[in-house]
Amino acid sequence: MLKEGGRWAESVKLLDFKLQGLVGDTLVGAAAVAYIGPFTAKYRRDLIIHWVMLCQNDKIPISKNYDLIKNTVDAHQVLKWQNEGLPRDSHSTENALIVKKARKWPLFIDPQGQASK
């Protein structure tokens, strides 16, 4: 069991690690929320990979293993959405985070009626 000082030191290390990629993570997350909504899952993934590579090429600090969902919304919120009926695939989770994070109302094309839930 860690002593109080050990836990604090671990927390500080974890926070320092997360802060290293804050600028690039925020940049890619904001771009994703603003632009990837109408695209397919494969095209979204390709765009995010391209944006991450651009950040790395331009020396913008970004997390090594950037993941839109993990960097934009916490796991507890994702579980809550899934318990409320959101499908468990990443495309649906991305759609939910875009709806929650975007400033404007999205246009839903929803033949299966999932968005109304």
Automatic annotation (TrEMBL):
What InterPro entries has UniProt attached to this entry?
A: AAA_9, DHC, Dynein_HC_stalk, P-loop_NTPase
Q: Which residues form the signal peptide?
A: none
Pfam families (alphabetical): AAA_9, MT
Q: Which Gene3D superfamilies match?
A: 1.20.920.20, P-loop containing nucleotide triphosphate hydrolases
Q: Taking every annotated instance into account, which residue ranges of this chain make up the domain Dynein heavy chain ATP-binding dynein motor region? A: 80-117
- What residues does the Dynein heavy chain coiled coil stalk domain cover? 4-48
> Under which name does UniProt file this protein?
Uncharacterized protein
> Lineage of the native species?
Eukaryota, Metazoa, Spiralia, Lophotrochozoa, Mollusca
